[in-house]
Task: structure prediction
Amino acid sequence: MVRGRDGAISAAPPIDDAEAAELFSPWEAATAVVIAVSGGPDSVALLGLAARWRLAGGGARLMSATFDHGLRPESAREARAVAAFSERLGVNHRTLLWEGEKPTTRVQERAREARYDALARHAIENEASHVAVAHHQGDQAETVLIRIAAGSGVGGLAGMSKVSWRNGVAIHRPLLDVTKDRLVATCRARGWLFVEDPSNENDRFARARWRALTPALAAEGLTEKRLIMLASRVRRAEAAIEGMVDAWMEADHWRIEDDGLIVDAQSWAAAAAEVRTRALSRFIRKTAETYGVAGAPERLERLERLEAQIAAAVAAAQPLTRNLRGVLVSFDGEATLVFAPEPPRRQTARSS
Result:
């Protein structure tokens, strides 16, 4: 049992400096790290531990940033509280504002995208190689649940990765293996004040609704621990599948020509269905990058449907052409798949 400075007792042990040093070891090579802090216990613990790590000789320069989305009247006050806490720790702070008209649908999703964009821009402006966010084990479990309900593929069920990228900036999640109660215990043990965001309990939002269901799911055996175990196993499978796709892409199955990517249809058809689907995604992306097509990532369902259509066409030796957001995918009925930009005339007709 741990009693915090506020008198609250927690059975969860707080994170000590030695454990924090392990969590932050990827920052040793960082130019600087922007700590994203909302004022909640997770991000307050992250900032407080990071500041102690830096004082103990951690290599990276630290700064903190709060994204004020302006969706709640309390948000500006919370940002000022984070600024004061940062000053106390000797860390420079900046409040980033979400300016312009706010969305009325998919609010949390769009606020999250705007937040990551703003944090990455702030990192670039300050020559920081990393942004650190405070997602923890409970967030990971909720993410897996939400993605199961959405029918995600293997990659989605792997949950959040510890490092992702935004405009060349590493988005690091050092607390992903840490439980929320330990973060709260850390704040209480150190006397670090935090706030609770009421939107976390607002059933307008999907994540809050899933959070409310977790006790009932846990009673049936679908605990946070088992969801984390599932994500870990799926990540292993995901790495193995991506390795297979890498090996196929590196073999002599395709080439770039002036008018498109040329793929050996029989070699593609001989691969496993999952490899074929992922190769299609990569070819569509590569075509967009190579020929300047303003395409967008395809949803998994559309890629799977395209994979089935092309596989059937190759098996039957029947020509096929499909258009995916400005990328023409065609099979000549014999031996060749071509990925090419949509002709300008058709682009103009479609946009008019």
About this structure: The two ends are 68 Å apart (CA to CA). The chain has two domains: 2-229, 251-351.
